[in-house]
Amino acid sequence: MIKAIVFDFDGLIIDTETPEFESFQKMFEEHGAELSLDIWGRCIGTDGSSFEPYSYLEQCIGKPFDVDSARLRRREHFSERMHQELPRPGVLNYLERGKEMGLPIGLASSSTRQWVTGYLKKHELLNAFHCIRTRDDVVKAKPDPALYLLALEDLGVQPHEAVAFEDSPNGALAAKRAGMHCVIVPNLITKTLSFGEHDLRLNSMAEMPLEEVISTILSRSSNDR
User: Fold this and answer.
1) CB-based contacts of 156-160 (< 8 A; 24+ apart in sequence)
2) 164 pLDDT higher than 60
3) What is the pLDDT of residues 146-157, one digit of tens each?
4) Which of 23, 37, 124, 127 has its CA 20 to 30 A from that of 155?
5) From start to end of the chain, where are the E strands?
6) C-alpha closest to that of 172 among 36, 45, 16
């Protein structure tokens, strides 16, 4: 029986990941360099500590550059793109249906609490979640399972009683390491990445009703026994 659902944030609820990658790509292009998705993809879904783009750019061009200026231009480009971003298709419906089904809803994100709650407030989604866990709450972010384990503890459910919704390989790995069911819903950037173990893949949450997602997962889980 599924008793709770837990969402990632970046790239899943709101696609911050595509604008972020594009803004860094633009920064690299302005300096005559290239940032590939193969390199960038390794840090998607994590706290970003494994990759420092400004140092990498300096390595690529072989000389120092004005980091402060580049950072400012990158952030301006990102902000311009984010003005256009709304919650991904199906997200609002899943949150509403989860509430109607009596499922506690959690959020587990490798970003900071300020980052996550800022966007949730902007889109009036903050009260949709029974608990919000971010990298501020753990020593290690995803792909470590700590964030999900904390969210499960908050929700009062066992890992096998919960479904995680993720958009990145690192996030899906964290959910499976926590012992959860995992539905992946890749975005424009992460759909080209290689995913490990997961229970169901959707192009968007608008593709399948939440009730059908849960019944499909339970059916497959039963057949695997």
Assistant:
1) 156/104, 157/3, 157/4, 157/104
2) yes
3) 999 999 999 999
4) 124
5) 4-7, 105-108, 131-133, 162-166, 181-184, 200-201
6) 45
Q: Which of 93, 87, 150 is nearest to 119 (CA)?
A: 87
DSSP letter string, 112-155: -HHHHHHHHHHTT-GGG-SEEE-GGG-SS-TTSTHHHHHHHHHH
Question: 111 is written with which tokens?
Answer: 């970003």
pLDDT digits (tens, 9 = 90+) for 178-200: 999 999 999 999 999 999 999 99
Residue for token digits 């012992």?
Answer: 179
Task: Write down the pTM of the prediction.
Answer: 0.91
- Whether the per-residue pLDDT at 49 is higher than 80: the answer is no
Residue 7 tokens read as: 């969402």
Work out the mean pLDDT of the chain and round it to a whole number: 94
**Distance between CA 215 and CA 220 in Å, rounded?**
9
**Active centre residues (catalytic):** 8, 10
The answer to whether 132 and 31 have CB atoms below 8 angstroms apart is no
> Is the CB of residue 15 less than 8 Å from the CB of residue 190?
no
Tokens read off for 36: 């590939």
Per the CB < 8 A criterion, the answer to whether 202 and 184 are in contact is yes
Residues in the chain, how many? Answer: 225
**5 residue type, one letter:** I
The pair phi, psi for residue 85, each rounded to 5°, is: -85, 130
What average pLDDT does range 73-93 have in this prediction? Answer: 94
